[in-house]
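Regression check, DGJ case 692:
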Amino acid sequence: MTHHWRLDDGRQTLVLAARGGSLPECVYWGAALPGGENLETLVAAHALDVTGGMLDETPGLSLCPEAARSFPGQPGLVLRDGGGTPLQPRFSFAETREKDSGLHLVYRDAATGIGLTFRFKPDLETHVITCETTLNADRPVHLHWLAAPVLPAPHLSDELIDVAGRWCGEFQLIRTPWSAGLRARESRTGRSGHEHFPGLIIPARGTTNTQGEAYGFHYGWSGGHRMLAEELPDGRRQVQFGHATGSQTTPGTQFQTAPLYLAYSNTGLNGCAVAFQRHARDRIIHQPNRTRPVHYNCWEAVYFDHKLPDLQDIATRAASLGAERFVLDDGWFGRRDDDTSSLGDWQVDARKYPEGLGPLINHVHALGMTFGLWFEPEMVNENSDLFRAHPDWVLGPMDQMRGRQQLVLNLARGDVRDHLYARIAAILSDHAVEYIKWDHNRVLPMPDAAQTSGSYALIDRLRADFPQVEIESCASGGGRIDFGILQRTQRVWLSDSNDALERLRIQHDAALFLPGSVTGSHVGPRHCHTSGRSLDISMRAWVAAQRHMGFEMDPRELTEHEAKVLADVTRWWKGNRDWLMRADILRLDSADPAVIAELQLAQGGSRFVTFAAKAATSAQISPRPLRLTGLEPMTTYRIDLINRSAAPGLSRGSPALKRGPLDVSGAYLMGHGVTLPWHFPETMWVLEGTRL
Ligand code: DGJ
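Current build output:
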């Protein structure tokens, strides 16, 4: 007897099947199948032949490959009983449940008392399938590894794209050729981490940003994940995602993976990107439709040197440039004059603010801006009243290495969470704070899932009691970005790099998973503090305008020209943000490797903007046409270069776009491409398009 289940979202179909009572396997995942497809036939067709050197049957690549059933690769589950003896369950079918939360497939192994439940839920609008695995045990067990539902990877694929990075260099796409054996990525730092964003895209052969098939995965967990992509000895390929191994440090009777998000595309990498962007924006984030205010963050202007008159002056200037939210960064609490002290002491520093934060907040409000405040709740400095009172609240041994001179508080403890809640709630109750920048500047001493669950619980409690307060997830820039934290926050601080050239690349690659509305991007100082590079204001402003815009330079450094350019671009952003913050970000296949380009397409397709940045000097002398994407081929669009006045003197010719708008078909724009005027490296063309 065969069981089979079919999941459809209008774009992708996923078929699960099981012979007899064995665990189900995914026998099809790809483009939508016809409604009448005979699943029995599919299952029969899926069975592999065997030849010399093989077992007499092929062990199933199930949703949780079982070590005890001759599976030749990495198992989906590694656990021990309370006494430390390895358990190797062999699961049998128990029941199926269809609920609002999706399809639940329940399996049990009577001998070990272990049960597994797989949940799958397709989303008909975002075209993301969410799935997860839950383990139940009759007696406490030690869990080493539990994979979310395990899926096969396509054979017509030559490489994997996963994501690495570093401080100021997040979202670096790594392409690795498939070969026999295992590619493992594991974030063991207790954060999703700069180094290992929990995402994977498997392109079919020949896939580009705009065409071909791709399979996207994202594991929504902030505590560090493990990914396995393995080519088995028989040639099949499997993908597993779960929490970092060993991060469940105590025995238990129930364990659940984080949700694994799946997106199949036959419109290139962009199909996965748009599915993830929409899912993050419309399903993961709470309050997705609030207008995104222009931020001003004072960190790179004053660092720890908080002086009320300076901050008021800066706020006044920021408001005149167009800022709508003023965020007071690190340095306002305890005796925090540098990063050696005071984390944990969440009281306003009376030396810097003798009358409290009121005068600054009132000033900010009088300028028409809202007020945001920086916290780093999970951390403590040894030089703090909190540490002196509760040295036992630290996570891990005291002789552990320090990171930025700080230690981590043990958020698995209810008393620690209660204390932090009370301190933060007091500040939020006493002040008109609309926004928290929630930082996390060091790694954990060891992977620990309970710490992440504790952080989630603290944020959830604060959110429940202060629903009007938005939160930004920051961890030295992009060290904690994933759909788990985004369920509790509204924005991510993508990187500490405010170097527009670096930021351009980082946010372009992050768009494979993140929508513009959650991706903070700030105009940094003229001389970038983290790269030493100097960039023109217009490049800095337009790069910030590609995402949720903000400023982070000291506005007192701006020349009149710089202030004007910045105010103009900010005005443009505000005029367009209503549709821009709900647009799909489509990465373009640039014929010139020096050009990083994307098209942001309004919902419904009535308008778009293309940002084409020359990130380096081109090899060839004249610009190559840039093919657009996502347009209707037989429709005419009016395209207009809105910053044509930025053309340098060395652009000596007279291409039509330098003179005015053009009306051309989508077929032309996508098939031939738009030829932009010559421009300098480190500058950006901005091309608007309207459907006529
Ligand atoms: C690291 C963050 O990424 C910065 O933006 C800033 O908030 C500092 N921490 C403050 O200590």
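Comparison notes: The mean pLDDT is 97. The CA atoms of residues 257 and 486 lie 17 Å apart. No diff flagged against the previous build.
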